[in-house]
User: Fold this.
Amino acid sequence: MRRALLALVTPVCLWLAGCDLLGIEGATVVAERKAAEGKAVGAACRHAGRAIEDCYTLNKKAEKAAIYAGWREMDDYMRENKLEPVPPQLTAEAPKPKAAEADESSEPAAKTESDGKANAKDAKTKKVASAH
Assistant:
């Protein structure tokens, strides 16, 4: 009886040990990945010359402790090697609030006569330019 039970339990244990091969992540793997991502975000913020508070604000989903650890490591590295911050080249556009979008959609209905004349002149110039 004991051998039969052992014969059944052994393949099940081996099969469950292979769950990592199926792509099922454990809690420790997920925690390590989040910490690594937070450190990378913090390091990138420091390299870009951002304040740590700005980094927290821009990356709400990342763990603050991990962001701080990455920011601090990059700060030490930059001081040791006398590196200057590299300002970001792209600027993020702030999303428009929904109330502002509604105001913009009602704005064309409130045009004055002079706006209409200016738009008509623009349309005529575009037609002339496209004809040539």
Q: What stands out?
A: Residues 4 and 44 are 57 Å apart (CA to CA).
